[in-house]
Amino acid sequence: MMMGDSFGSMGSSMASLFFLWATIQQIFPNHLKITIKEFLLSSFQQLCFAQRVSDYFTNLFSPYVEINFPESDEYSFNQAFSAIETYLDSKSTDKSKRLKGSQVKESKGLVLKRNEPKVKDEYKGVNVWWEIVVETDGNRYYKLTFHNRARSLITDSYVKHVVQEGKSIIVKNKQTRLFTNNLSTQWVFGQNMWRSIAFEHPASFETLAMDPKKKEEIVSDLIAFSNGKEYYKKIGKAWKRGYLLYGPPGTGKSTMISAMANLLNYHIYDLELTAVKNNSELKKLLTATSSKSIIVIEDIDCSAEFTANRIKKESSIRERYGRDDKDENAVTLSGLLNFIDGIWSACGQERIVVFTTNHLEKLDPALIRRGRMDMHIELSYCTYEAFKILAKNYLDLDGDDAHPLFREIKALLEETMISPADVAENLMARNHQIDVDKSLSLLINALEEKKDNQKSQQEKKTQKKFKIFG
Ligand SMILES: Nc1ncnc2c1ncn2[C@@H]1O[C@H](COP(=O)(O)OP(=O)(O)OP(=O)(O)O)[C@@H](O)[C@H]1O
Ligand SMILES: [Mg+2]
């Protein structure tokens, strides 16, 4: 017998008792009412006791097993509970009669979920039943019921499957946010360090124009990282990864960061170093970031320059006054590197650090040595392969033979340095109307103009050289 049946019979007995009491109140005088009330109360207690005894024996001989998953364990939240809830919400709603509508992400629209206290599920041919139970004190737990025959299948693999599936749906549905740091004058008792907005950038690796092989390498590196919890634990390293994106303006460095965040569903923390006064503020900001996030420092060459000036100033203070103001008055390169190496090692949560620069050669070697920045990614001028991706995004043209002008464009791209941003600008539809021929001709004009400019600049440079040596 399932537990629901026993609750049903107890409910009807209680209803009969209440009905009886209402009738008695109308018929009997007051002094008799008290005696009858006492009699009824004791009958009710006996009924409950009998019910418990009957439940005990029913459960003793029942072939069904129950596992409870409480919402909280003692003092902490039970993560399995929310994973189960999400998993059950995601089950097909085709046969449900009670649904609820929710929107987790602006970009995802309204999603219909089941809204029933009991859900039947099937795993490898075995039926199981889930039920959400709310206790009188408001505590909730999920009750899983299954036949004893399938005990090892359910306890060994089904429960793990449900929790894993639920967690991955939670990550997928997470509304990612873009955080920017506030000035420390705006911080209130360690709060309000970061302000944030919902992150809804449409960038993806699919639409990112770059060498397809390199792209694949980056995507698999990111995925391996995000699935690497056990691996990082095994090798005893902090679960973090550093990427240095370098290349000329408009080659897709910022776009790639958005694509990374969309791929992994991570938050972005855009760290503006000029708004940070000293190392201690930097430390507070970085420790206030959440797990599964990308910490970005754009144009690190400018920040490094700023740091170098600060270091010079600090050393002159030290020489003059014999004191070390480094940590109190400045953000230093060593401070930044210490946090990247040290702080996340302590908290053990997954973090990605991304630096971008237009000038790799300007960077301090300490900043970019391997191990600190695990992958150096160059984003370069637009190649023919990258152009084809842009042509597909902007003009719906797919493949080498998609348009007769492609051959001319290919030849021009081999001789001209043009950023993907400039190419995209020419391919962009005017007034939402795609005009393939016009866009491609505009691009050819832009390429020819750039090619001539670059040629004449090159000639001027050569002439200068000759003058110097002549
Ligand atoms: N590789 C690319 N693939 C697709 N679109 C690109 C690419 N590079 C640039 N773009 C387009 O050009 C615009 C500018 O690119 P983005 O801001 O990513 O360049 P960046 O390398 O960060 O430049 P900067 O060095 O100036 O910060 C983007 O909004 C995007 O539309
Ligand atoms: Mg940028």
Automatic annotation (TrEMBL):
Q: Which SMART domains match?
A: AAA
Q: Where is the composition biased (Basic and acidic residues)?
A: 451-461
Q: Where is this region: Disordered?
A: 451-470
Q: Which UniProt keywords apply?
A: ATP-binding, Hydrolase, Magnesium, Nucleotide-binding
Q: What is this protein called?
A: AAA-ATPase At5g40000-like
Cofactor(s) of this protein: Mg(2+)
| Entry-linked CDD domains | RecA-like_BCS1
Q: Which InterPro entries match?
A: AAA+_ATPase, AAA_N_dom, At3g28540-like_C, ATPase_AAA_core, ATPase_AAA_CS, Mitochondrial_chaperone_BCS1, P-loop_NTPase
Domain AAA+ ATPase, residue spans:
239-383
Catalytic reaction annotation? ATP + H2O = ADP + phosphate + H(+)
| Family that this chain belongs to | Belongs to the AAA ATPase family. BCS1 subfamily.
